[in-house]
Amino acid sequence: MRFLSRRFLLWIILLAALIRAWNLGSGAFWSDETYTMLTAVNPDPIKSLVSIENSPPLYYAFFMPLWASISTSEAWARIPSLLAGLGCVILAFRMARRISSTRAGIIAALLVACDAYLVTHSREARAYTIAAFFSFWAIAETIEVAETSSTRAWIRLGLALLAACYTHYVELIFGIASAGLLVIRRPEKRTFVGLAIITFCGIAAFLPWLRLMTAQMFKGNWYLPVWSGTAVGELPWKDGLYYIHRLLAWAFLYNTPPAIYRLLYYFLPVPILLTALFLARPLWSVSSIRSSACFASLLLVLIAILWGLGAIREPVYVQALFILLLVILAVSVSEGINRKGIFAFISIALIALLLLLDGAGIVEMYRNHFHLEDRLTREPWHRIMNVVKERETSCDAIVVMPGWGTPAAWYLSRPERKPFYLIWYDSPYFRRMAPFARVSPGEPEALAEMIRTKYRRILVIRSRPGFYPRESEFWSAMGGVEKIRDEIMVGEVRIGILETLPISDTFELR
Q1: Among 317, 346, 454, 489, which has the minimal tally of Cβ within 10 Å of its Cβ?
Q2: What span, in angstroms and rounded, lies between the C-alpha atoms of 139 and 158?
Q3: Strand partners, 458
Q4: Is the pLDDT of residue 495 over 60?
Q5: Is 375 part of a structural domain of the chain?
Q6: Could you give the CA distance from residue 408 to residue 248 in angstroms, rounded to a whole number?
Q7: Is the pLDDT of residue 444 over 80?
Q8: Are residues 332 and 390 in the same domain?
Q9: pLDDT by residue (tens digit) across 41-58?
Q10: CB distance 177 to 294 below 8 Å
């Protein structure tokens, strides 16, 4: 049986790798991936990280600069997330097998391998899946500590939580949930001592980063909503509950075509969870099942509260919760199959429905080749990037106006790309970008004269007319917006060619 389980697991891992690796480098970097690569290739990645991201340094400033020193291609930059996604499959198998059976482990591994939400973020050069791997590792170790309280499990829990929190600050909620579960399930002296040691080591590890972390907080103002003075009775708790519902819907419907998404958004998540509870009813006497369900409940409550307080806006960093829910669902389905009859039919139908929805989501992801941050409002970042990459070969400079085009500009700021100028207005946000992205401040007329004198054929990326307060002055000095030729629209972005000399006087780039 162990041999068969290993063979099944190997095939599932190969399936997960194939789904995630297929055409991995075919799409250009989307907006947030450009931030990753800009920091990775910067001579001072820490300084770049503080200015661009609201994240700790483990992935963006420590790991990715080393990884990008080998290659900066799209496929190579996304491989770490792919490997972390495969690690999540293995962890899900081990956890489900430990708390239930080998069959539950196989089902859990299959669900995690094919989940469209997890697949999508396993194909991105971002820290989302890296954080999910460490956080879910922490969940698995927490449940083992709750059952055995072994010293090795405590050490692994501390390492997993430290790595997760050093990947993103939001992962701290998994540490809070871990502490809550251990206090509830094992209220003894050893538990409190272990939690105190982990807390002390975590604080000590963050001390060297404390000053820069404070700079990130004040830069991004992401802490302000929590301390805005809102009375507790006025907090938007309904928003928190809605957010939880949306998270659950994304776990089962991510990337599905809009018609399916709209149809099932309000009717699918809750029935699935109720069905899982019904199927798993005989298992509630199992201690590890109760620990897993308690952990998931604590996480849901924490996320709802933090969303209501306005302190969390990053669903991508709670992917470990999705994996835990899929493990619990796999255990429930496995138990339903054991009970045979109508229970087995419901269990198999539920698995088939989820895999069908995941398949639709994965097909939609491959068909569109751009990041789907919201199923109903799609931002065509990949198409913007691809058009820019096609057209830049015939130009000797790039001019970008603030707006949707700026991530493309930051991506193109890498040394091997064409010179570009990000025309910005005087604000703290763009001023922070200045040391890292070749931002070009200055009087519109002087800047336009310099660009016209230095370059002959310019790729222009612009959007949101009027976003730059002195935009009209700049374009007047450049000869007028009407001089931009072959302009196409990609979403809200306009991409065109500007000749600074009459067409008959232009030269062909070699």
Answers
A1: 489
A2: 11
A3: 397, 498
A4: yes
A5: no
A6: 32
A7: no
A8: no
A9: 878 888 778 777 778 999
A10: no
